Amino acid sequence: MQNSATGVIRHNQDVLQVIKSYWQLTKPRIILLLLITTAGGMWIAAQGQVDPVLLIVTLLSGTFAAGSANTINCLYDRDIDYIMERTRSRPLPSGRVSPRDALIFAITLAVLSFGLLTYFANLLSACLAMSGIFFYVVVYTHWLKRHSTQNIVIGGAAGAIPPLVGWAAVTGDLSWAAWVLFAIIFLWTPPHFWALAIMIREDYAKVGVPMLPVVDGNEPTSKQIFYYTLSLIPVSLLLVYPLHVMGAVYATIALLLGGIFVQKAWKLMQAPSDLMVARSTFKYSILYLMLLCAGMGIDSLPMTHQMVSAIAQHMQTVIGALL
C-alpha cells in the first residue's frame, strides 16, 4: 500500500511491528517527562499520600492524552519529517502507518483519556487534559511551529498542563501552588528545546521551521536560554515561600539543581556554537526536571516532615544549651 503523503510503499508487518509503530507515534520518551510532572503535582496536592488507584488511572490517562497529541503532531508534520534524516524513519513518513489509521488511533486515545479521568477523577482534570491536546495540536503545531520564533515559548504551555491535571485529579480545583508548577514547566521548556534546536539547527533550517537559532542565531538563543534558566530558581522557590507547600528539603534540592542548570546555561552563552555544550545543557535540562519533581515527592513525605521537625528541635535544644 502506498502512503499518499510521501510516496513511500508501506510494507507488510507482523503484529509486534505494528504495535511498535503505533507506540513510536506517541513519542514515549516525551511522555515520560510529562508523567513525572503529573505525578509531582498529585504528590504535592495529596501531601505525599496519593490514592494508588487514582495515581495509576491519572498517569494512564495522561499517557493517552499525550500520546494522542503527539500522534496528531506526527500526522501534521509528516511532510517535514520525511525531509529530515533524523525523522524520516518515523511510522508516518516511512509509510508504516497510514494517515487515516493514525488519526483514528489519536481520537481513540483522546476519548479514553477523557473517559477515564471523568469517571475516576473529575471533569476538571479531564477538560484540562483535553485542553493540553488542543493547545499542542492547534496553537503550537498548526499555528506557531512553522510561523514564529516564539513557537516554543507560547507552545510550552501545552507541556505545562500535566501538573495541573495531576493537581485537579486529587483536589478537584487549582490552587496557586498548581499554577506555580505550571510556571516552572513553562519557564523550563525554552531552555530545554532551544538547546536541542541549537544541536539540530541545520535540520530545522532545511525544512523552514523558524526556530530561534535558525532565525536569530545561536548567540541570541543562548542568551535567552540563560535568562529563562535564571528565572527558574526564584519561581521554583515560590512553593517554599510564600506558598509554604514545600519545605527545607525541596528548597535545598531546588537551589542545587537550579545552580547547576544556570552554570550550564552560562557556559553555553560563552560558547553558543559548541554543540557539545548545547548537548550537555539539553541532557541536564531533562535531569533537572526529573530530580526537581523527585525533590517535591521526597519533601511531601510524612517521614520527611518528621525528620525535619526532629532536626529543628535538636538544633533548638543545642542552641538553647549554648546560650
From TrEMBL:
Pathway: Porphyrin-containing compound metabolism; heme O biosynthesis; heme O from protoheme: step 1/1
Domain of life the protein comes from: Bacteria
GO MF terms held by the record: protoheme IX farnesyltransferase activity
CDD domains for the chain: PT_UbiA_Cox10
Residues that span the membrane, as ranges: 30-46, 52-76, 97-117, 123-140, 152-170, 176-196, 249-269, 281-298
Annotated localization: Cell membrane
Bilayer disposition of the protein: Multi-pass membrane protein
Catalyzed chemical reaction(s): heme b + (2E,6E)-farnesyl diphosphate + H2O = Fe(II)-heme o + diphosphate
One Gene Ontology term, aspect cellular component: plasma membrane
HAMAP family xref list: CyoE_CtaB
Note: Carbon 2 of the heme B porphyrin ring is defined according to the Fischer nomenclature.
Name of the molecule in the record: Protoheme IX farnesyltransferase
Top-level taxonomy: Bacteria, Bacillati, Cyanobacteriota, Cyanophyceae, Leptolyngbyales
